[in-house]
Amino acid sequence: MNFTLRPFSIILSFLLLICAFDASATHFRAGEITARRISATNLTYEITLTAYFDVTPAGIEAAKAAVSVDFYFGTDGPRKVDRLVSSIRDIGNNTTVNKYITTYTFRSAGQYQISVKMDNRNANTLNLNNGVQTNTINFYVHSTLEINANFGLNQTPVLLNPPIDIAAVGQRYIHNPNAFDADGDSLSYKMFVPQQSLTGNGVGTDIIYKDPNQVTPPGQTEAGVSPATFSINEVTGDLIWDAPATKGQYNVAFMVEEWRDGFLIGKIVRDMQILVEDARNDRPLVDPLPEICVEAGTLINQQVRATDKNGDKLTLTSTGGVYEASLISPALAKFNVAQQGSQGTVAGQFTWQTSCNHIRLEPYDVLFKVEDGARPDVNPSLFRKLVDMTTLSIRVVGPRPLGLKATAATDPAGTAYRLTWDAYRCQVAGARIVIYRRESCSDIPEDVCITGIPAGSGYEEIGRVAVNETTYLDNDNGNGLRPGVSYSYRLVVEFPRPGANAGEPGNLIGGGESVASDEFCLNLPMLMPVITNVTVDSTSETKGVITVKWTKPAASSGLPAQYRLFRAVGQTGTAFTQIATINTNLTPGAPDTIFVDRNLNTLVNPYNYKLEYWYTQGGQLVKLDDAETASSVRLEQNAAQPNQVGIKWAALVPWDNSNRTHRVYREDKTKPGTFNRIADVTVQGPQTFTFTDDGSDKYAADGTVNITIVKDSTYCYKVETVGSYNNSQIKPAVLYNFSQILCVSSSDTTKPCPPVLTLDPLNCDSLQAHPEAFCDSPTFTNHLSWTYPQSVGGKDCDPNVFAYKIYYARYEGDTPGLIATVTTPPSPLSTTYDHQGLTSFAGCYFVTAVNRFGSESAPSNLVCKDNCPMYVLPNVFTPNGDLKNDVFQPYECPAFVQSLEFKAFNRWGAQVFSTKDVNINWNGKTNSGKDLAAGQYYYEVTIYFESSKKVTTPTTIKGWVQLLR
What we know:
By secondary structure, the protein is mainly beta. The protein has three helices and 65 strands. The model is unreliable at 1-25 and 500-508 (pLDDT under 50). This is Gliding motility-associated C-terminal domain-containing protein.
């Protein structure tokens, strides 16, 4: 849902006047304002002020005297609203509550601040106004309401737990407002400075305020840790003071923020009083409760238990939107305490039959509060009722779709599958079934708290259908699927956010996803081979060897067949060159799925391989498909502490090398050429893995060879990766591949330094004088040159550079990829490179240096280059049909123009022609085809030129042209 937050269009003020008792009456403890839209056809809201008074004799009189309040709606003037009949209620702990409810229809959508002021606050509030004359400060709170057509019947959260509990010196105090949002919006919490209204026009001003924990030096927490703390949990709303040190009266405020789809759509401020007393009893404790996740339709049956070490009588209660018929549709939750008031221990049973109406993105928070009661052996005047509370967070998610199957289907596009499934249990209006697909079968975590498809699982969305549908044809959007591939499918149901009917009981669906369906995997015979090994057998500048292996596809009638193997330099290299052609009849046991690639520079370069499979059709070889590319394992030096050696390795392969144990080998210097396995490294990330060698041999099976790593000595390593396709059809199931051998030093002084790069500049003035140069050249070349420093930052650079690697990105901000390696130049090593075959000059480069051990430097400076904007227009054209100068267009050919918009105007400023054609090609007519009179016309061209920046700034050209006939 998209919407725009508008600036305040109206400031709506509530000015609550207490006129029936003396203006100096002071007994206001707490309050907040909530609002609820009650009409689907106009912007009518029900607005409620909840006000809390203390139960002193004067406080009771103050509450009774406040029989009405004045609401202000901009310039409409005051509207007197009576207190809700019989709203004065004693709610315990010396507190009564008044409610004032009115309705108001706003004229237009927008953002509105609703505020209220009451005289006055209580005297002797220690943390306001430095504790001086706080009874002269009025009480002011506000709420912010966003009215937007996209929200439908949106309403603010309601705060179901009143702020009436007593805090005890030295004991942990907790308050939670138990905020409930019937629309399922997300809530967050933060502290707010209590305010007063000095102007009377609905604007609040911060009161001089101290954190209540700082009024006197903070003591210890209840557990004896220093210092005491005071904070609010921004997610749960738990306001915790652990623990007050000084008896007295304090006021604090916090804000409840309402969010939808990442947008802040409302705020409520609760200003509340905390009374800290000396207590001769310890507070009770309620057992914490874990988060519950259930599929809609599950019956929740949760026991809640509380204890009191003093053996006090206990009262266990619960609040939450799940009990309120006005906030949630049936069935409502129930909370039953069998032995309310029992001593020492009390237990209650929470039950809730969830349904499809309860599905939403945000959890339901149910508050449980235990309060102790006086014992006969304690003087009632010394006893203070203390509380503890905990929140049960319940996520109600959509049930998983059931019965998913897939069968082959006839389709003009080619290979296709018809998916079917059982009718979905929760037929919620606006919900959609989302279909996901991936190649090969794959498990994902099974947990009701994990909804949707986890990131990184390899599944991609391929389609959506209405929630009442039970079938889908997958033909890859009319392109046809790859034949012979084992596809895996899953379903997820996405639920709508609140719409026009949100906020009404029975229409509480608040977004979210269902649990993913069980997988259905088409375990088809593999018609396309896949690469299984790219392992380095020998490390050398000129005699390096890599062995490549692949699987044999299922037998088919299209024989004989052929494998074609291609190689590119670099793990991400795409400049593939064919290196082998292998004919096959798919004979079992034939050595036709292996190729040994020789005479490579494996010391400096990783390599990327691609396999094509061709089969016979109608007597001709036809390519079936390309296998996914697979690179060799590249081992490099990594940062480490002195007297240690760090290494890292990566392989860009179609199989999974993560969540496996890789093997690290180190050369035994007493036996040159012999490598000893020194560690097994369990890896988790998908591509790059690391290990730090401290000299100890952590793998004893092949003998223990511990060493002391010495600065400036050289140590050689290789790594064997362990991976799998996780596909039972691909053998072997476990794939082993070696990296090249890397020899490095524990000292960073020998690491190559980054080169300093320059690019040949463009002479735009010269090129503009000869624009035909662009027309005659189909491609362009950037000339790179660099220097290699002797030292950087006072440290010598390794002088033995054996290669330079050139990286290129088309746009600034993109990650440059390797495009070339300068490895076999004449002596000395070349420090130039021509990047040829470009369609424009725009792009960014950096260069790295590689030493004799294959260790690569950090990148050089990044250098970007832009094109010369070339667009020249004539000042006359003659559209008279003689085929000479009949159209208005740029001279020569427009260079590097990405897009443009051309507009022509007559002498009176009226637009007569427009086009987005890069060559304009204006024939002297209007866009409707009417001939324009001869004369002078003015034009404006907005041009976007190709650039090294993804988002370019347009160039505007203004001029005139003479139209002659």
